[in-house]
Amino acid sequence: MYIIFALMNTKKKIEIKGLTISELEKYFLSIGDKKFRASQVFNWLYNNLVSKFEDMGTLPKGLRKKLSQDFTLETLTLKTTQSSNLSATKKFLYSTQDDYAIETVLIPGGERNTLCISTQVGCPLDCKFCATGLMGFKRNLTVGEIVDQYFLTAKDVGKNVITNIVFMGMGEPLINFQNTMAALDIFTNQHNNRISRNRITVSTSGIPENIRVLADSPYRIKLALSLHSTFDDIRSRIMPINKRFPLADVLDAIRYYSRITDTRITFEYVMLKGINDREEDIRALTKLCRSLPSKLNVIPFNSIAHMSPEGISKELVPTSLYDIDKFVTKLRDNNITVMVRDTQGDDIAAACGQLATQNIKLT
Predict the structure, then answer these.
(1) Are the C-beta atoms of residues 42 and 59 closer than 8 Å to each other?
(2) Mapping DSSP to helix (H, G, I), strand (E, B) and coil, where does residue 149 land?
(3) Is 123 a catalytic residue?
(4) What is the Cα–Cα distance from 355 to 222, expressed in whole angstroms?
(5) Which of 54, 105, 155, 282 has its CA at a distance of 20 to 30 angstroms from the CA of residue 66?
(6) Catalytic one of 15, 23, 25, 103
(7) Are the beta carbons of 84 and 348 closer than 8 angstroms?
(8) Strand pairing of 137-140 and 120-122?
(9) Does the pTM exceed 0.90?
């Protein structure tokens, strides 16, 4: 009922992108129309990617006019794109209506083309290996701003190009929890024929309570944990959020998620020389990965020099590719499923951990 209340109490138009089916149904009932209008509008917005209310041809002309009076279709504006010279990776710089900058990346992979979307302007977690954390944090993205990264990018590259969505861009999805959940509601809705739920992954640094709530939701998407160390002292050093949510609490929630949803967890692991690439790390990772259905996603540390890091961030050194190979081989010898993420888009600061803008505002 929030949308109806908002329309009754403000002259400002509401973003219609980002409204769930149930919210649209409540709106149409409130103006004396039929509930089925909600699925019609949903289809125009998310399957046909319309940018004007007047293009919603199955709606009566008067209703289209009413929608244009109550709602806006504007959320993000595409400012620039960058294409990698080394791969087909493409980065999109979007501007919010209040001129904040966010980045979205399309990552190619044969028949799989993955869109990495953001959920916040900057990030409050200050992970030492991540450029986004060096931006600081300004605000959460609205539901419309989250989902429109997908729909605007799809309009740019083609409706059927994007096959997968990962919530791994700027920000922590499970801190912007309600908006992330609403975005998942839209992406996984039966009326949305663009992306299957088993092709959607949410990555989190570990917010135990919200991991459990997500597990109990109907969405059943894949979950990835930004692990990066199995030792609390090291994890707290490179991921300050671990001081608030110790790893044991996070892993309890992760095991709950895996059990309730019957899904395999992905552990993300950025390789840092002398920090998390030791023999004791191999032993601890082996023990952890054997304790629940999981796979390990090993990620070479990508430079964050473009953000002029200081302190710990400036001192971090990537594990060599030779040593990564030895590390991975030993884990595989222990029958652990390990994937090594190819570095794509690092020449345009679009690789894992590199998303950030020098100017958080574009004006």
Answers:
(1) no
(2) helix
(3) no
(4) 22
(5) 155
(6) 103
(7) yes
(8) antiparallel
(9) yes
Amino acid at residue number 225: L
Between CA 143 and CA 311 the distance in angstroms is 35
Amino acid at 57: G
Domains and CATH numbers, the chain: 2-72 (1.10.150.530), 76-348 (3.20.20.70)
357: helix, strand or coil: coil
For residue 344, the model assigns a pLDDT of 84
Are the C-beta atoms of 223 and 202 separated by less than 8 Å? yes
Q: Which two tokens stand for residue 206?
A: 């570990």
Residue 303: which of 345, 354, 357 has the closest Cα? 354
Residue type for position 296: L
The structure tokens 């200081």 sit at 310
Q: Mean pLDDT of successive 10-residue segments in the chain (363 residues)?
A: 52 88 95 96 91 95 96 94 92 96 92 95 96 94 96 89 95 98 93 85 98 97 98 98 98 98 98 98 98 97 92 95 98 98 85 80 68
Count other Cβ atoms within 10 Å, centred on residue 217.
15
